[in-house]
């Protein structure tokens, strides 16, 4: 039978793994995306897990999901709905079916659909497929639990440990379905469990059993699928999350600038992985300090900046509120500091594991006094590397704190990233004092063109100075309450930020004759680009301008915003970027698409909204 199996070549496919929070769906999804990136596919992933520390097993609120979109070429989003849904229990099937296409293949563990499981998932009868309206021919019903127990019966593992391997059986079936080389999975597991080789081998045995099950019972699935990579630039690729890419971007910036990297942080979802990742790289000169609270995390970083390091503090929206006083100290002292805000749903504790773009106005204005700061928003998980690098470059070259906005979607999501070489990265030249200033240096002497003050690192003979939170005289550096001096210093700090040179915003699509321009910022890029693509395929004239640099805005912003007959600003908040653009562009009155669901945009919803405007 295997010789007659049809192999279909696809351009792209979406797989969603789902089960209890303890079922290892994130790991199974990560392995599948890593293997796909290794063979050259484009990928985009989206982990979707509950905020509960651990909901009751089998409950509807405790379901964790991980969606992987793989493609022959570049992939822009994790996909609206999946082609394959893995549901490890009844609750997973019930809650995750809405993310599956009508024709999707569904893989279930029939051992987790017993009477108690169905009761917890609030099914009315044992005909769960009929209740959900699922065609049984679409379902690969496999007794995964029993088969894993049989597979590991002689392993010496206890029952609890054996059950934790069920995710690997499901992964094996998916690898067979998509013609994946399971030796790549084996290599991943041996690397991950290098210190526990027996655990690695047990998991590999289960993956192989799942693969063999798919191979031997393929009558329930008429074909396997292959996705060949196309138009990849040659290089070394890896599957990287946004948080890891942010960490790597900061390490690269410190290396390029010849500085130590210091991170002062306090753990907070969904930013903590930046702290975890940087803590692994002491060999690169990275110093990490987990502080007792948010303000001390920022204050310790500010001390490191004063001492001459590339200083960073990482957090999410609630932490930005708590850090604001220390951030303001960086503004008035004009010290280089990168503040990473991995946005999540709010207000207050809000939706800790979900994603929004609701901190934009907080980043721009959320401090007392006139407190201007550059703001950058990363476009994708892989763009987090460049966004972090550029944030560090601006901070060091313009002696200013910089806010880098990412969010839970791109921080936890991942993409296929080609590793750069340090030689290809932009030069970073901190704005240090000059030898000519020795013995007559004051802290607010400025470059006449950029208005950037000169950075003197403590310990340099002849450059003694004092910084602090009280306003200083711009000429002497002494404390000053003079009204005219304060007015001048506020204007100088604002003008310094305004003079930072950033790239023009690029218009994609039908840039010369579009009937509508889509406008977004940060992580919505992939969804807006996909919506534009879909509409252009229908013959509509659509263009896209996605903003990465928020403050200062690119110099061509007003020209681009007023060039087209209709403009729609789409964002995951209630209109913050549209409001900001209206203050910067005279007469700008855009259409708006706003959602705050804690979830990424759905491309089909975007397309429908754009059609209505057109």
Fraction of residues in helix: 25-40%
What is the percentage of strand-forming residues? 15-25%
Distance from N terminus to C terminus (CA atoms, Å) equals: 52 Å
Give the tally of β-strands.
Answer: 22
In summary, what is this structure?
This protein has 614 residues and is α/β, with parallel strands linked by helices. Helices cover 36% and strands 20% of the residues.
Note down, in words, how this protein is organized:
With 614 residues, this protein is of the alpha/beta class. The chain contains 21 helices and 22 strands. The strands form five sheets. The protein has a seven-stranded mixed beta sheet with strand order 11-10-12-13-15-14-20, with helices on both faces. The longest helix has 20 residues, at 197-216. The model has no long low-confidence stretch (mean pLDDT 93).
Would you spell out the secondary-structure blueprint of this structure?
Elements: E1 6-9, E2 12-20, H1 25-38, E3 42-48, E4 63-71, E5 82-87, H2 90-96, E6 100-109, H3 115-120, H4 128-132, E7 139-142, H5 144-151, H6 159-163, H7 166-177, H8 182-192, H9 197-216, E8 223-226, E9 237-241, H10 242-257, E10 261-265, H11 272-279, E11 286-290, H12 294-306, E12 310-315, H13 317-333, E13 337-343, H14 360-365, E14 375-377, H15 383-398, E15 401-407, H16 408-412, E16 414-418, H17 483-498, E17 507-509, E18 516-521, H18 525-537, E19 542-547, E20 549-551, H19 557-561, E21 567-571, H20 576-584, E22 591-594, H21 603-613
Parallel strand pairs: 1-8, 2-5, 5-6, 6-7, 10-11, 10-12, 12-13, 13-15, 14-15, 18-19, 18-21, 21-22
Antiparallel strand pairs: 2-4, 3-4, 9-16, 14-20, 17-19
């Amino acid at each position: 039978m295997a010789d007659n199996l049809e192999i279909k070549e696809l351009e792209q496919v979406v797989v969603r793994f789902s089960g209890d929070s303890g079922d290892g769906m994130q790991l199974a999804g990560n392995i599948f995306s890593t293997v796909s990136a290794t063979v050259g596919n484009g990928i985009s992933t989206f982990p979707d897990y509950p905020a509960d520390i651990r909901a009751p097993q089998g409950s509807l609120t405790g379901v964790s999901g991980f969606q992987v979109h793989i493609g022959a070429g570049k992939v822009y989003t994790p996909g609206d709905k999946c082609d394959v849904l893995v549901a490890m229990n009844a609750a997973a099937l019930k809650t995750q079916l809405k993310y599956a296409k009508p024709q999707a293949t569904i893989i279930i563990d029939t051992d987790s659909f017993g009477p108690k499981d169905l009761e917890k998932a609030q099914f009315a009868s044992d005909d769960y497929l009929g209740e959900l309206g699922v065609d049984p021919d679409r379902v690969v019903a496999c007794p995964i639990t029993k088969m894993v127990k049989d597979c590991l019966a002689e392993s010496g593992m206890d029952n609890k440990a054996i059950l934790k391997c069920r995710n690997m059986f499901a992964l094996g079936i998916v690898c067979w379905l998509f013609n994946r080389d399971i030796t790549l999975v084996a290599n991943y597991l041996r690397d991950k469990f290098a210190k526990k080789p027996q655990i690695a081998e047990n998991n590999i045995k289960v993956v192989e059993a799942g693969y063999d099950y798919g191979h031997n019972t393929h009558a329930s699935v008429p074909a396997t699928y292959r996705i060949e990579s196309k138009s990849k630039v040659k290089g070394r690729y890896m599957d990287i999350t946004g948080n890891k890419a942010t960490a790597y971007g900061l390490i690269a910036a410190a290396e390029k600038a010849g500085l130590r990297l210091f991170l002062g942080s306090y753990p907070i979802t969904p930013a903590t992985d930046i702290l975890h990742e940087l803590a692994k790289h002491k060999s690169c000169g990275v110093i990490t300090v987990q502080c007792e609270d948010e303000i001390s995390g920022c204050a310790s970083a500010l001390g490191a900046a004063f001492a001459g390091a590339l200083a960073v503090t990482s957090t999410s929206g609630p932490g930005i509120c708590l850090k604001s006083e220390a951030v303001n100290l960086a503004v008035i002292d004009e010290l280089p500091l990168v503040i990473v805000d991995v946005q999540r749903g709010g207000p207050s504790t809000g939706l800790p594991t979900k994603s929004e773009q609701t901190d934009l106005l907080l980043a721009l204005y959320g401090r007392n006094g006139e407190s201007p700061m550059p703001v950058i928003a990363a476009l994708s998980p892989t763009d987090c590397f460049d966004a972090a690098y550029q944030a560090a470059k601006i901070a060091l070259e313009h002696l200013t704190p910089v806010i880098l906005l990412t969010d839970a979607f791109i921080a936890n999501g991942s993409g296929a990233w080609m590793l750069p070489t340090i030689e290809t990265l932009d030069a970073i030249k901190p704005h240090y004092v000059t030898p000519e200033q020795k013995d007559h240096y004051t802290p607010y002497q400025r470059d006449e063109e950029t208005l950037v003050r000169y950075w003197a690192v403590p310990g340099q003979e002849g450059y003694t100075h004092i910084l602090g939170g009280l306003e200083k005289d711009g000429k002497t550096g002494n404390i000053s309450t003079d009204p005219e001096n304060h007015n001048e210093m506020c204007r100088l700090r604002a003008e310094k930020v305004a003079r930072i040179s950033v790239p023009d915003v690029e218009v994609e699509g039908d840039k010369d004759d579009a009937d509508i321009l889509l406008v977004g910022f940060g992580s919505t890029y992939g969804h807006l680009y996909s919506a534009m693509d879909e509409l252009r395929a229908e013959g509509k004239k659509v263009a896209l301008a996605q903003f990465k640099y928020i403050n200062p805005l690119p110099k061509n912003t007003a020209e681009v915003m007023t060039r087209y007959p209709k403009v729609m600003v789409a964002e995951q908040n209630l209109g913050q970027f549209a409001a900001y653009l209206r203050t910067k562009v005279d007469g700008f009155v855009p259409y708006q698409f706003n959602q705050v669901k804690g979830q990424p945009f759905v491309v089909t919803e975007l397309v429908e909204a754009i059609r209505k405007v057109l």
